Amino acid sequence: MSVDRGVKCAPGEQETPESGFERLVAAEQRVEPRDAMPDAYRATMVRQIAQHAHSEIIGMQPEGNWISRSPSLRRKAILLAKVQDEAGHGLYLYSAAETLGVDRDDLTRRLVEGRQKYSSIFNYPSLSYADVGVIGWLVDGAAICNQVPLCRSSYGPYARAMVRICKEESFHQRQGYELLLTMMRGSDAQREMVQDATNRWWWPSLMMFGPPDTGDAASPHGHTEQSMRWRIKRHTNDELRQRFVDMTVPQADALGVTLPDAELAWNAERGSYDFGTPDWDEFKAVISGHGPCNAERIAHRRAALDDGAWVREAAAAHAAKVNTHTLPLSMSR
Ligand code: FAQ
User: Ligand 1, closest atom to CA 150?
Assistant: First the structure.
């Protein structure tokens, strides 16, 4: 399909699908599903959106673990709503991926067969109710830092899904922080739970931003450079990681918890915090399937897929029946 959103090619220049795509991206216009796009751009978008969708769905598990053991009805209602929001995010994202010509069932198969990734962060266990608060504060906080720039991502359906997702993630972050503030005003045992959860989630939260931009631990086939050229990504992994640290340190101070990094220090020259190096060997192990909970997370997802097969079949049979009965005879199959 030709591109005409006020982005014209130069007089005398011959329009090609490639030049149309390049001009759209350069003009900060959105690429829409029916626009011509390079195969590699399509493949990158499918990879990133599917990985993001899988992360939202697998990400329901660590907190879902605590729904039945919430300390009060109020906390249970909040947690149920949050986990349900993550399911919604997964669904918008699978829909965005489907606009690129892939099928959600196929993506889910690729996930449970280990052929597609999901975020490293969800391979860590949630050991106490303080983890629910810390996941909201740090994990949703990191997700917001990473995802707000994606609202300006070049692929239209992804960028638009991201706007609503970011609004909901902000709310999630606040609920996590509010839970932690409440616990910090409680007993010594509650304060210890918050500190312990912070110690366990801090480094994995920094790893959410992906491998470093440079150095031995950088990915040999990293996507950042190309994705920034295509305006999918707007910042490098290290830039966003730094933004997250700068945002979070004052929040930790206000909360009264210590971030578990002896190298954390304000650098007046840079106007940012210096911080230590995440354990990149651990990160590599986790994303290649060897984290503490990888096997459990996938087994759970696979069981849910198998257990839900009859619901999908029944829904499909019902939809087929309704369509046959409601469409005019000439249109029914
Ligand atoms: N985990 O070259 P890069 C959430 C892989 S949602 C696993 O830097 P890219 C909400 C990467 O895929 C959290 N794998 O790649 C919530 C690539 O793999 P390949 C999810 C990772 O794509 C909160 C290789 O390493 N958010 O938290 C990770 O340019 C609370 C090289 O990496 C998104 O998905 C990782 N952390 O940048 C839910 C956001 N990092 O090709 C429940 C959208 C990298 O070798 C509770 N995605 N890899 O197979 C992005 O922004 C990007 O895809 C990055 C990675 C930044 C994650």
Answer: 51
Tell which one of 41, 44, 51, 208 to mutate to probe ligand 1, the residue whose CB is within 8 A of the most ligand atoms.
Answer: 51
Residue from 267, 103, 287 nearest 209 by CA: 287
What are the angstrom distances between the C-alpha of 253 and each of 133, 135, 188, 256, 293? 16, 17, 17, 5, 30
Q: Ligand 1 within 6 A of 119 CB?
A: yes
Q: Is 223 in the pocket of ligand 1 (CB under 6 A)?
A: yes
- CA-to-CA distance for 311 and 306, rounded, in angstroms? 10
Question: 87 with 60: CB under 8 angstroms?
Answer: yes
DSSP one-letter code for 155 = B
In the three-class reduction of DSSP (H, G, I as helix; E, B as strand; rest coil), residue 220 is classed as coil
Q: Which residues contact 149 (CB under 8 A, 6 or more apart)?
A: 233, 234, 235, 240
| Helix runs in the chain, H state only | 17-26, 39-58, 60-64, 73-98, 104-112, 129-134, 140-147, 156-184, 188-207, 224-229, 237-255, 280-285, 294-307, 309-326
The ligand 1 atom nearest the CA atom of 59: 42
Q: What are the residues whose beta carbons fall under 8 Å from the beta carbon of 327, sequence distance 6 or more?
A: none
Task: Give yes or no for a contact between 269 and 239, defined as CB atoms under 8 angstroms apart.
Answer: no
Note whether 48 and 232 are within 8 A (CB): yes
Nearest to 175 by CA among 296, 301, 63: 63
pLDDT in tens, 8-21: 666 667 777 778 89
**What tens digit of pLDDT does each residue of 271-287 get?**
999 999 999 999 999 99
Whether pTM > 0.90 for this model: the answer is: yes
